[in-house]
Amino acid sequence: MYKRRWPSGEGLAIAQAKDKYFSQFVTKTSFNGLAESLMVAIHEETHMWDLDPSRTSWDVYVSAWINASRKAMKVPIHGGFARREILPLITDNLTKSMDDIYLRDQQQGSYKIQGVIAELNAGLMGLPAASVVAEFIQGVGASNARDIVATNIRYLQLYLRVAKAKYPDYWAKIKGQPELREFVLVEFLRAAYWLDQSEPYAAKLGSADVAKIVAKNYAPENIAIIEEFTGAKVNTGTSRNCTV
Question: What is the pTM of this model?
Fold first, then answer.
């Protein structure tokens, strides 16, 4: 099915087929169970591919599986600051469950831009993994797939805002890194595309808060930081997966 519907998922699955943990992520008792488990399986195997030491050096450079024919390879990220520093910019409870894990947890909150990028890219593989087989999903195993993407785009935008406001030297370093600027733009547009594509299955693949989170992500100050950092003007109309 992936070969027909989403070749990039087939490509990642083949690339990671020998990973000893892969079989622990999937349900093998029924096809519907398998379909439901693929969000977590592909999410985690994206981490395994992206964070392989041959491709990524923590806080130094990052690699990411984008699709079967395109990868971001060894993109310099220059360290950064603890991602928990974005918490003061979050004044609602829309992403609280993930904020508690990724920002308030002592260890997770200390991760820098590497952690933000890693979770975002895994989410951007997990969402299509479930979306393309969504008609077979009957349970809740993929029920936060849309939330993961929307929330991690939020984290990326807020991280860039804090970088610009509090860490001018770091901001200058990453803004002067064309590979990272392109990667951020690609991830932002991928998020727009897959949130749109998964909309018909929104009730299965996300909470009722997803639309509110996305609206926050498209607030003027958050769009402005994406455009300033990437140098591109993004479409905020009906074709959000495109630049203008």
Answer: 0.97
Assigned domain for 79 exists: yes
Cα dist. 188→17, 88, 141 in Å?
A: 28, 22, 25
238: helix, strand or coil: coil
- Rounded to an integer, the average pLDDT of 75-85 is 98
Q: Give the residue numbers spanning the domain of 180.
A: 1-230
Number of domains in the chain: 1
pLDDT digits (tens, 9 = 90+) for 179-205: 999 999 999 999 999 999 999 999 999
DSSP secondary structure code for residue 59 in this structure = T
pLDDT of residue 38: 97
* 102: number of Cβ within 10 Å: 21
> Any idea which residue has 């959000």 for tokens?
240
Q: Determine, yes or no, domain membership for 197.
A: yes
> Tokens representing 104?
């308030």
- Residue 176: phi and psi, rounded to 5, are -90, 10
CA 101 to CA 98: how far, in whole Å? 5
Residues paired with 65 in a beta bridge: 71
Supply the pLDDT for residue 94. Answer: 98
Distances (CA, A) of 66 to 45, 177, 188: 13, 19, 12
The span from the first CA to the last CA of the chain, in angstroms, equals 34
What whole-number distance in Å separates Cα of residue 110 and Cα of residue 60?
A: 15
CA nearest neighbour of 95 among 212, 222, 201, 202: 212
pLDDT band with cut points at 50, 70 and 90 for residue 60? very high
Residue 9, classed as helix, strand or coil, is helix
- Asked whether residue 238 is domain-assigned, the answer is no
Domain assignment present for residue 116? The answer is: yes
